[in-house]
Amino acid sequence: MERGTETAVSQELVVEEGVHHYTREEDWVRPEDPLLLERLEWFRDQKLGLMMHWGPYSQLGLVESWALSDGDSDWARDGVDWGVDGEELKREYFGLNRTFNPIRFQPRLWAELAAEGGFRYLNFTTKHHDGFCMWDTQTTDYRITGPDTPFHRHPYADICRELFDAFREQGLAISAYFSKADWHTPYYWPPGMERGSQMWRGPSYDPDRYPWLWEQFVQFTHQQIMELMSRYGRIDMLWLDAGWVNARQQQDIRLDEVVEQARRIQPWLLTADRTVGGPYENLITPEQTLPDRPLQVPWESCITMGTSFSFKYEDDYKSVRELVHLLVNIVAKGGNLALNVGPQPDGRLPAAAIDRMKGLGRWLHVFGEAIYGTRVWEPYAAGATRFTRKGDVGYAIRLYEEGETAREEVELSLTAEPASIDLVGGAVNLEWRRSEAGVVVQLPESVRASEAPEALAFRMRGIQDGQEGGQ
Question: Given pLDDT bands bounded at 50, 70 and 90, which one contains residue 463?
């Protein structure tokens, strides 16, 4: 088997149709630095992040970047029907920077909406695989502030700076998404190399045969990362995509060197070297999925609010109820939700996304105590109830389906013996009694309705160590 084919097969274990797999819990490496361990506990407290994929590709309403890879054309070009070959498609795609002009960009409104929605951090795509930079990099003209991009004259042209500053002003932390692959730079996809015109996810040449060219790519990548780390204020996490770029695949970018350099400036910096494992994958990142059981290590599921990470015209958005249930299920398993919204090409957030963010915020404003800062309370779920815990306080979150009624009583599959049961954000010392299925709680009249809310959270005080939540 040729080496290129062997590498392509092994890469399928990392990404399928643009969706990354995730590292097994038992392969997670615990950092030795006490500060990083402290920051990981901080991260586990946050629970909800806003992820944003945005770039010139938003004009097409197609999946971001992947149409450039001939090796992924069978699925990534489904929406391309104007009869061009792969080479012409790449030229047209790479020319999208000349028409990307988001003059209705609203960084402060985005930040206000995120804070209102209960989000605790921003994970923003500084650069996707296509290589277009959303900050004022000095490494390439293929950037938002480049002379060919009409937005470069706008006062908000340095999009990363505007967003990072606006979100910090609202008290949100910053996670910088950065693709280790770059399909635009001639250091990764130089023309006329071994692969000819047929591109894939990896470089167009064998790095072992052209080490000087690969070294240029390594230095290019390091310079870009250090620009973000040194010129854009406090960065809480460097979120690294393109898991196929790693030493095992003969694509060693010497990540250890650049991360250590970055931590000399930002010693608190967490890194998410997705699917690679080792000391720089500080958290595990399932994509468009949830683990089937609780994980006892830091993890974050990145899941789209609609059906696409990038903006998609007439996308089908999840309801507020679906989003609340998604968040509760993730938190009950010990993780964070990075909920992705794709901004429009004109610089606004879609109206449906704004509606869902506000709806999620309304629920969290009342019941967030049972979400933020919690940890797993085994067995985490029983029937329609999910469990979380903070020390000697346990929480039972009863999920309600659409059309379900909140009646006078609610049965919780609870085995623990609490000292008292309160409604989070409401009445305290509720009446309750034991039942064969757990406990039955008397609901206050104020929450009884013809249709139940997305979920109700109950606080149980006096939980002893070793006491399980459900049955």
Answer: confident
CA distances in angstroms from 84 to 87, 198, 257, listed in the order given? 8, 15, 42
Higher pLDDT pick, 401 / 466: 401
CATH code linked to domain 376-461: 2.60.40.1180
Distance CA 454, CA 435 (A): 24
Q: Report the C-alpha gap between 248 and 108 in whole angstroms.
A: 42
On whether the 3-370 domain is CATH 1.10.600.10, my answer is no
Instruction: State if pTM tops 0.90.
Output: yes
209 φ, ψ to 5°? Answer: -90, -25
**Strand-pair category, 438-442 with 432-435:** antiparallel
Compute the CA torsion angle 399, 401, 402, 406 (nearest 10 deg). Answer: -60
Residue 328 burial (CB < 10 Å; 0-12/13-18/19+)?
Answer: buried
Residue 447 exposure: Cα atoms within 13 Å on the Cβ side? 25
Helix (H) or strand (E) holding 329: helix 320-332
Tell me the CA distances in angstroms from 61 to 79, 82, 93, 95, one per residue in order.
9, 15, 12, 15
> Could you report the per-residue pLDDT of 179-231, keeping only the tens digit for each?
999 999 999 999 989 888 889 999 999 999 999 999 999 999 999 999 999 99
**Cα–Cα distance, 233 to 244 (Å, whole number):** 29
Domain with CATH 3.20.20.80 in the chain: 3-370
